[in-house]
Amino acid sequence: MNLTLRIWRQRDPESPGAMTTYEVADISPDMSFLEMLDTLNEELILRGEEPVAFDHDCREGICGACGVVINGDAHGPERTTTCQLHMRSFEDGDTIDVEPWRAAAFPVVKDLVVDRSAFDRIIGSGGYVTAPTGSAPEAHATPVPKPSADTAFEHAECIGCGACVAACPNGSAMLFTSAKVVHLNSLPQGAPERESRVLDMVDTMDAEGFGGCTVTGMCTTVCPKGIPLSSISTMNREFLRATRRGGRPD
Amino acid sequence: MRFWRSTVGKKTVMAVSGAIMLLYLVFHMAGNLKVFFGPDEMNGYAHWLRTVGEPVLHHEWFLWIARVALLAAVVGHATAAYQLSRRDVAARPVGYRHRRARTSYATRTMRWGGVIIALFLVWHILDLTTGTVNPNGEAGRPYENIVAAFHTWYGNTIYIVAMLAVGLHIRHGFYGAAQTLGAGGRTRDRLLKATANGLALLLTVGFLSVPVGVMTGIVE
Ligand code: HEM
Ligand code: FES
């Protein structure tokens, strides 16, 4: 396949940046999108040019590092991560636009790399359970009802890639935050911090400069892990419940 | 206050105030249909509205209580909408070069639609409550005032555009409010969307029937 790429190039956070056009030839349809970018970078290095900076780690769809916006879609045309997107999703001769996640809370570091540490600070404000560490607890000490376990597992699938923020017209982190709130608040282990968790995480999310939810549904459409839109509604319910209780546990 | 400071808290204010206005619109629309039963019934109904609650309440007190509640709802709704919109726009300072609109039309028009409805509200009160801009503008005679309003091209245009805006606004607004108040759920979302569409259609058609009735000569 021969492709024309228009890629956002930006030297550092302060520089202006612009879309830059590149041609790549002989791309195999079996390559992943990142392998296609590797091919381009090898050529750029041979030509003595600066390679395109992009984030990646596992390349198997579990770390959440590799997000870029491809033709206006977070992670491109398939509902998966960019590393798991294959070039067979494109046609020979296509022009492909590649841009970084765009959100005030995700400043561009370089080219396609953004700083997603705002997510870490949201997690740090309540996305955990407080438990004594050391020896493993007895497996039957805290029984978890099957429906709660299923809900928790479904929401624990979030890999924190940030596609929800990138796709939301308001740059909102509601889907990400709600995935963690619902994950932990549906488990007995999360119950002691149920109220403070949701209040603190929503506060941090707002303080980091993410927008609010207008229920456009764009976030769930692009989520590679299929976190449902209903998780936002569940978090709102948890938020209202915690507010009614003045943030105090039972 | 922590609640009002947060985006979720402001959205809750929007959802509750929106629900109050929606409830009002349902009664208002139904009341408007009285126009099809002639001047006596319409004007009698308007008179009755001023006597509701008597003798416990003084004359027109019920009306004024409703007006104060609605004004509070409008102010709360608009203030939260303005502040949230400012935040939302600031959260995406740089847009994508490769753009396409993928959200629904009703979703995309919430902000401007809200502004249009607010402007309509001012016109509407000057038209049919105070009578200031109404060609007839006679207090206590809403039937004659309505007929006069819809005998003008601008009256018809303003009402038709505003009612379509109201329909779209409710279509996304009802669904959004339900999500904000925590009523969403995987199986319930289809029901909520269907209810939102039904309410939007009912109110738009019901409200529009009045100007259409006057335009076609059914109401004279
Ligand atoms: C074709 C559509 C409509 C017609 C014919 C209509 C007609 C009227 C009439 C005759 C009154 C005065 C009632 C009285 O004083 O006894 C009134 C009041 C009012 N209408 Fe409408 N209306 C329409 C649509 C709407 C819509 C869509 C809204 C909301 C966005 C609305 C909001 C109000 C409000 C808030 C008042 C009360 C004003 C006050 O008494 O302070 N109306 N309407
Ligand atoms: S590189 Fe880890 S998810 Fe794509």
Automatic annotation (TrEMBL), chain A:
The keyword Transcription does not apply. GO terms for biological process: aerobic respiration; respiratory electron transport chain. Residues 1-102 form the 2Fe-2S ferredoxin-type domain. Residues 149-179 form the 4Fe-4S ferredoxin-type domain. Its cofactor is [2Fe-2S] cluster; [3Fe-4S] cluster. SUPFAM superfamilies: 2Fe-2S ferredoxin-like, alpha-helical ferredoxin. GO terms for molecular function: 2 iron, 2 sulfur cluster binding; electron transfer activity; metal ion binding. InterPro entries: 2Fe-2S_ferredoxin-like_sf, 2Fe-2S_ferredoxin-type, 2Fe2S_fd_BS, 4Fe4S_Fe-S-bd, 4Fe4S_Fe_S_CS, Beta-grasp_dom_sf, Helical_ferredxn, SDH/FRD_Iron-Sulfur. Keywords: Iron, Iron-sulfur, Metal-binding. PANTHER family: SUCCINATE DEHYDROGENASE, SUCCINATE DEHYDROGENASE IRON-SULFUR PROTEIN. Belongs to the succinate dehydrogenase/fumarate reductase iron-sulfur protein family. NCBIfam families: PRK07570.1. This is Succinate dehydrogenase/fumarate reductase iron-sulfur subunit. It comes from Streptomyces hainanensis. The lineage of its organism: Bacteria, Bacillati, Actinomycetota, Actinomycetes, Kitasatosporales.
